[in-house]
Amino acid sequence: MFNGILIEKDQQGYRARLASLAETQLPEGDVEVSVDYSTLNYKDGLAITGKGPVVRSFPMVPGVDLAGRVAQSSHPAFKPGDAVLLNGWGVGEKHWGGLAQKARLNGDWLIPLPAGLTPWQTMAVGTAGYTAMLAVMALEKNGATPDSGKVLVTGANGGVGHFAIAFLSRLGYRVVASTGRPEETAHLQQLGAAEVIDRAVLSAPGRPLGKEQWAAAIDSVGSHTLANICAGLHYQGTVAACGLAQGMDLPASVAPFILRGVTLAGVDSVMRSKADRVAAWQRLAPLLDEALLKSISREIPLGQVIDTANDLMAGKVRGRVVVDVNR
Fold first, then answer.
1. What average pLDDT does the segment 153-170 reach?
2. Under CATH, domain 2-117+292-324 is a member of which superfamily?
3. Strand, helix or coil for residue 249
C-alpha cells in the first residue's frame, strides 16, 4: 500500500482526498517509480479543486511532475535505481501522476535526472521552470539577445514568471515584470526584474497597434494581455505564449504581424520531444543556485496538498510548491 491524492467523480460529486492505494491499482506502464518529490502546479490546482476540466478519467492521481528512482523496469533505457524525472505527457490528467508515493509510467516519458541536480531541486524547478526555459529558447531561436531591448514577463508572481525573470536576468536581459500584486515588487526585483508594472496596463482591450515597448516577451496570461503585448512589440519582436491565466481568447489584430513582422511563438511543455526536454534542462541547470530555488519555492507534505491547492486557486500562493510525498 502507498499514499496518494485521489480525485473521484461519481453520483456523490467531484472530490479529492488523501487515500491509501494498492499497487494493483496503478495503471499500465513499463517503469515503476518510487517517487521522492512532486509539485503543485496551476494545472494540478485546477484538477484537485475541480475548477477546470483537466482530469480526463476517474479515479485520478494528479501531479504533472515527479522525481524519484526506478523500482522496476522492463524499458531498455532504465534499470532499478536510476534517478529519473518526468514533466507532462498528460500525467495527472489521463494517466496517474506524481502526487503519490508510487507511479507506473511509460518509460518513453522519462528522462534521466539532470547532472548536478537533486530530485528536490528538479521539483523546485518543475514544469514551471522547464516551461520558462523552453520560452527563453523560443525567443533566442527568433533572434532575441540582451542587446535587443527590454523583455516583458507577464504573470510574474507565478511559477513560470518567477523562473523566466531569473533566467532572463542571469542571461543579461533587462526584464520588465508585469504583476497584479504590487506588494511583491521587492521580491521580483530580487529575482532580477529591472522594472515592475501593474498588469492592469495590459489586461484591458487595447489598440490594434501601439507604441513599440519590448523587444520580446514571455506571456502566461493570454487574452487581452497577449493581444496588447503583440501590439507593443518592436519590429520583428517575438512573444512566447505559454499560458492562459486571463483567458483562452486572443482578441488581437493582424496589424503587428503584417506591419511589424512580429512572431507569436507557442510554447507547449506537455508533448515536447525528449531531445527538447534534455536540452532545456541542460540550459537551465547552470542558471540555478540554492538561494534562487529557496527564494522561489517552499515545501509541503502530501497531506497539505488539497488545502494548498485551494489557496493556489485563490491567488494566495507565491512561486513554487514542492511536495514531499513521503511525509
1. 94
2. Medium-chain alcohol dehydrogenases, catalytic domain (3.90.180.10)
3. coil
